[in-house]
Design goal:
The chain is 0% helix and 55% strand. It is built from no helices and four strands.
Length: 56
């Protein structure tokens, strides 16, 4: 899977962090986020994947 863009959204849908991903860099740092629920949105060629993230 070739990743192109990843976004972290807050509970109200606001974009908290967004990054374009390269072949070498396929991670996003969430260590500064407060505890709570977030939405991770991964956009790639051919579609978008949306997942829920719960940070403790």
């Amino acid at each position: 899977m070739i990743l192109e863009n990843i976004s972290v959204l807050g509970p109200n849908g606001e974009v908290i962090e967004a990054k374009e991903l390269s072949r070498k860099r396929k991670r996003i740092d969430i260590s500064k986020l407060s505890s709570g629920k977030y939405i991770i949105k991964i956009m790639k060629k051919g579609g978008t994947l949306v997942k829920q993230l719960i940070k403790k």
